[in-house]
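Researcher: Good morning. I'm working through a list of sequences from a screen, and I'd like to move beyond sequence-only analysis. For each chain I'm collecting a predicted structure so we can compare shapes side by side. This is the next one on the list. No need for commentary yet; just the structure.
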Amino acid sequence: MSQPPGFVSYSHPSNYVCKLQKSLYGLKQAPRAWNEKFTSFLPGLGFNASFSDPSLFVKKHPTGIVILLLYVDDIILTGSSSSLISEVVSALTQAFDMKDLGNLHYFLGLQITYKSTGLFVSQTKYIQDLLAKVDMQDAKSCATPCLPYHRLSKIEGTLYHSPEQYRSIVGALQYLTFTRPDIAFAVNQCCQFMHNPLDIHVVAVKRILQYLSGTLDFGIHFNSGPLHLQAYSDADWAGDPNDRRSTSGYVVYLGNTPISWASKKQHTVSRSSTEAEYRALAITAAEVSWIRKLLCDLHVPLYDAHVLFCDNISAIALSSNPVFHSRVKHIEIDYHFVRERVIRGDLAVQNVSSKEQFADILTKGLSISLFQDHCSNLMLGSHKHEIEGGCKGIKTQDQSNG
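Model: Good morning. Structure tokens for this chain:
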């Protein structure tokens, strides 16, 4: 092991190394040392690092492609050629002490089930462990993770006696949103009170856990489909009663399957619903741009314009009509970011009715019927049955506006 900075021997500054008295594994510098060792080995096998994701490596060969995803010492390996994959596995096992676990079934808390139509990804065991941790295995379930159109306050209620427990549970719920976009908005609300949780915030967290107890087997169905990107962008203008900031929400689809989503409070106060919607549109455009670059790294280039659906007419007009430019100087950066991509033909912003705004579930609490409709549109359901009617309202690029 090389001498660490600040502890270099003056008598032997360069040609001596530290002798390890115990295994490096488990120490703070272990992940970095392992990552440097492993990533420096991969180019020798023909892998190139992705510019969009530092944990992604791609090997392009005339007979196929191999994709490697690295998280510390957990690796996912896939590709279009089984012989190429076998060669890579053989080379890795010779250089490192590794074990091939076969087909992917469990990875970092994510459970993968293979179905006739594609993949089903869930976190059932993760939820069960979380409910057991808070002793809510037998909790009475509820239909939605939060009350319709209800917002949490930072002044109503009394201080919670164990803020550390609150932070631990909400942090665990954040990781759960990787496969459960239906709880993303509710978790986002609870995350805003980590520093000073009140009893009403704990009640909100318990409601999320109750909802999860009744939807243990829920996950996302990843089905094969056309390779085109489309996204839904929405904003709840001045919805936060504490600081009147707006909440942005987006969901990006590859074909008919959602692959990226987020619910996040905007950094500044918007002076109009148009401004709030346009900021959300810019955030969505940035995400679509990143996904497009990631697909290029995977040698899956997409040349058609990607459709962004928005339910605000004024925001759509701003993206294509320079006449409105003088009215939005306070959001000029977002304006140019979206408009440049529209002019280049990378994006096409289209109108969608509020009833078919799939990102609505990421910006506010909804009624039971509307919430369940959007869960279906997000391909959420149980692995015990196929989604029926999922994404029935999704639009393709050759359809008209509205």
